[in-house]
Amino acid sequence: MIQSQLITITGGNMKRIIGAGVLAGLVGLTATPVAAEEPFAIAIHGGAGTITRATMTPAREAEYHAKLKEAVDAGYAILEQGGTSLDAVTVAVQVLEDSPLFNAGRGAVYTWDGHHELDASIMNGATAEAGAVASVTTVKSPIALAREVMENSVHVMLTGPGAEAFAKQQGLELVENSYFNSKSRYEALQRMKKQVGNPQDKTAWQQLPADYKHGTVGAVALDKDGNLAAATSTGGMTGKRWGRVGDAPIIGAGTWADNESCAISATGHGEYFIRYHVAADICARVKYLNQDIFTAGDAVIFDVLEPVGGTGGVIIVDPQGQVHMPFNTEGMYRAKRQAGQAAEVAIYKN
Ligand code: ASP
């Protein structure tokens, strides 16, 4: 008798159902359920903006390429060994936070007052637990602190001096704010101030080129147990004032993970990503409209954000290990690596 046996692989991934036994029955063998190789995947970004070949030297491009590959490979190695998506996204983001090339951690941009305030968040798609920090000034790895908030506090978001007191209590590495200083970001602040002129001029702020508003890093991953996770870390916007907080630490705006739909990390003009609730909107379309991540991601980035002037992009991974990285700017530093495949790194639109 031909018997169809359905094996459901647990781990939160309802869609991974494998029909086994049919073939075995046909050839007269005893059906032995064999689980297919579990999918896993990681994607990362290092910010979106006016990134074109014309504005890049080959040497600089090689540096970005190497660092993105290092980060995606570090996360991939964890997943390949059966580690969690949470560990993979944390480690990948930390590689980028430690590099002066990106606007997060070491390479954070300057505020209007000439110092650095960092934001970060992380979300566990299996449990809907999340942790976030905003406006921290002395924490070397804001993503590590966001994870501490998620795992070792009863809160979701901590800000400023309170967040730093918690970091100290948890034994995280603290640095002077000057650790985040860099010549190139300082010069960017001076250029930005010149372009804005009067800081009260709202239109001048809105007309700033995208590059002053972009540069966050992030990672999303699916592990072999079918669990999704997302993490985002940033120095925010060049010249930000009055304790401005962007989308990166806002769960649902810059970061979202849900095992039943997708995991997302965003980069772009944070004010728009907050108002349009970008990360959660994309995953909600996947969950409730049954859209795939390609349809849902493109709809929000190109049909919702672009018409209203919201520039930026997202990285998305779904429970099958598919990856999509749509953006409506000239470029987005990005990389992905799916089970058994080599890393793919890209910078420009085409
Ligand atoms: N989204 C970040 C913010 O608005 C900036 C960025 O992605 O570069 O703070």
TrEMBL record:
- UniProt keyword terms in alphabetical order: Autocatalytic cleavage, Hydrolase, Protease
Pfam families in the record, alphabetically?
Asparaginase_2
Please name the Gene3D superfamilies in this protein's record: (Glycosyl)asparaginase
Q: Which residues cross the membrane?
A: none
Question: What processes does the entry annotate via GO biological process terms?
Answer: proteolysis
Q: Which CDD domains match?
A: Asparaginase_2
- Site Cleavage: give positions: 215-216
Q: Where does substrate bind?
A: 244-247, 267-270
Which terms in the Gene Ontology molecular function aspect does this entry carry?
A: hydrolase activity, acting on carbon-nitrogen (but not peptide) bonds, in linear amides; peptidase activity
| Highest taxon in the source lineage | Bacteria
The UniProt entry annotates the active site at 216 (nucleophile)
- What name is this protein filed under? Isoaspartyl peptidase
